[in-house]
Structures are given as C-alpha cells and as structure tokens.
Amino acid sequence: MGAPYVVEFEIAKDDFLAAGEGSGSVKDTLKMLGIPSAVIRRAAIITYEAEMNLVIHGGGGVLKILISPEKVEIVARDDGPGIPDVELAMREGFSTAPDRIREMGFGAGMGLPNIKRNADSLEIESAVGVGTTLTASIDLSGEGGPA
Amino acid sequence: MKVAALLQSLALDVHCSGNAEAEVCHGTVGDLLSFVMGRCPEQAAWVTIQNHVNVAAVAVLREIPLIILSDGRQPVPELTRRCGDEKIALASSPMSAYEICGRLYALGLKG
Ligand SMILES: Nc1ncnc2c1ncn2[C@@H]1O[C@H](COP(=O)(O)OP(=O)(O)OP(=O)(O)O)[C@@H](O)[C@H]1O
Ligand SMILES: [Mg+2]
Q1: Which of B35, B37, B53 is the closest to A45 by Cβ?
Q2: CATH number at residue A93
Q3: Interface check A48 vs B, CB under 8 A
Q4: pLDDT tens, N- to C-terminus, chain B (111 residues)
Q5: A69 burial level (CB within 10 Å; 0-12, 13-18, 19+)
Q6: Residue A73: phi, psi to the nearest 5?
Q7: Ligand 1 mean position to A112 CA, how many Å?
Q8: Domain of A50?
Q9: pTM (predicted TM-score)
Q10: Partner-chain residue, chosen from A16, A20, A108, that has the shortest CB–CB distance to B60
C-alpha cells in the first residue's frame, strides 16, 4: 500500500470558539476522497471531540488525519498535563473542565465516550506532565455503518 | 414536519431560515454540547440556552436542521453567521425551554 493521505492541523490552546474548523475541513477532505458518508459523519464527530480536548485540556496540540484504503485514523497529540487515570477519564460524566468552560456547555464528560462510540478502535497513551496521544480509527473494509 | 412550518406554528423569531424544506422528526433539549452530540436523535430540533458558535458546530456534525434559543436569548452575531453559512435554521423565543419543548411535543415531535 502507498503512504496514507495526511491532513494536519495545529490546534491552539483555549481557542474553543474556533472549534469545528478541524472537523469541518476533515469532512471536506474525506468527501473529496470518496469516503462513504456514514464514515465521514463518524470521523467528523471524533475529530471535533478530540479537537475540543486539545483546546480545553491539552493546552493545544496537533491533530492529524491519516487516510488509507484500509482505514481513517485520527491522531490528537499534545504536550499538556496528561491524564492520570485514563479509565476514569473514559467514564461518561467524568470531567475536570473548569467552571468558566462548563458555563459554555463543555464538560459533560461525554467527549471521550462519544469518540469511543464512533471509532472501531481507540487508544489513549498519556503520561502526567508529558502529554497525551489519542489514536482513533475507523475501518474502511466493512463500509462503516454506525460503530 | 418541515422547518418552515415549525418556525411558524411556534411563532419563533427567525434569525436564519435555514433549509425551509428540511424535515424535523424529533426534538432534543440541553446545554451540554457533548451530551447533545452523543445523544440527540436524527433530524431533531434542538432547544438550548447555549449561545455561541460551537452550538452551530455541533448542529453541523449531527445534521440538526433547527436550533431554538429559549428564554429570550438573542443569538450572538457569530452564531447567526455560522448558521447562515451552514444553512441551519436558527430561531429564538421568549418562552422557556420547557414551554418550547411542550409545544414541540404537542406538534407531534416525540423525543
Ligand atoms: N488531551 C487531554 N489532556 C489532558 N486531559 C484530558 C485530555 N483529554 C481528556 N482529558 C481528561 O479527560 C476528561 C474527560 O474527557 P471528555 O472529553 O470525556 O470530557 P470533557 O472534555 O471534560 O467534557 P465534554 O467533552 O463532554 O465537553 C477531561 O475532563 C480531562 O480531565
Ligand atoms: Mg471533551
């Protein structure tokens, strides 16, 4: 197989009102590449939630989308504070979002569960004080109905 | 029910008329963005007091055809602009979220 098609974005810290830009252009790119619309929908939701976590929790970072004939892979990497307990963070309703951000409707503790629901596989590598790398992928072999 | 018909029957203030022909089949209410992202049904009208541009981002991703701001919230220009760009209907009302949902339900939009 050839090298995957890669799209990369720098995501700035605290710029949560710019959000949706990453997921918007991912949608356009996937459409251009002829990816099925059910997959596009799932990839865009994953990208949005990952992007928001970079903005709100990760102190900014890099979002990368890799598209190959086998899968769409979304990688969000930051050098932020890290996640002390990934299993706990994955739980619906768990959030450490600060109050001023909660007032804007973030902090339901649903972002990671939403990513998991829409991905065929999800891996989170995180070390406190070092950073977090989230890798979610969607299989393209099964034509990608809802996960 | 079509977006245009719904805007009219609730006498909402319309800020973006969106796609008048889009079908609204369900409703959802809430101010937690990721919650709506995870839980809202297909083709839902979304009632919220959340008033910033990320509301439009969620609506785009979940293909929500109509956003209704309750309790007299007037949309910030950035939200109106984005809804306009994305062809999402954006309306507001002095009614409470509870009241709006009650009326939507009475019109046949069940959950
Ligand atoms: N990149 C990250 N760096 C550090 N902590 C993170 C990161 N991503 C997630 N977390 C931690 O995991 C928790 C749960 O994340 P999740 O996305 O599920 O919820 P949330 O972002 O708090 O709220 P929501 O996504 O519903 O708006 C966060 O509150 C935070 O403590
Ligand atoms: Mg989140």
Answers
A1: B37
A2: 3.30.565.10
A3: yes
A4: 999 999 999 999 999 999 999 999 999 999 999 999 999 999 999 999 999 999 999 999 999 999 999 999 999 999 999 999 999 999 999 999 999 999 999 999 987
A5: exposed
A6: -120, 135
A7: 7
A8: 5-139
A9: 0.93
A10: A20
pLDDT digits (tens, 9 = 90+) for A51-103: 999 999 999 999 999 999 999 999 999 999 999 999 999 999 999 999 999 99
Give how far B25 is from chain A: nearest CA, Å.
19
Homologous superfamily of the B3-106 domain (CATH): HprK N-terminal domain-like (3.40.1390.20)
Q: Does some domain include residue A144?
A: no
Please report the sign of the dihedral spanned by the C-alpha atoms of residue A95, residue B56, residue A54, residue B41: positive
ipTM metric: 0.89
How far apart, in whole angstroms, are the C-alpha atoms of residue A34 and residue A109? 33
For an interface test with B, give the residue of A16, A37, A57 to mutate (most B CBs within 10 A): A16
Specify the residue for token string 């007037």: B74
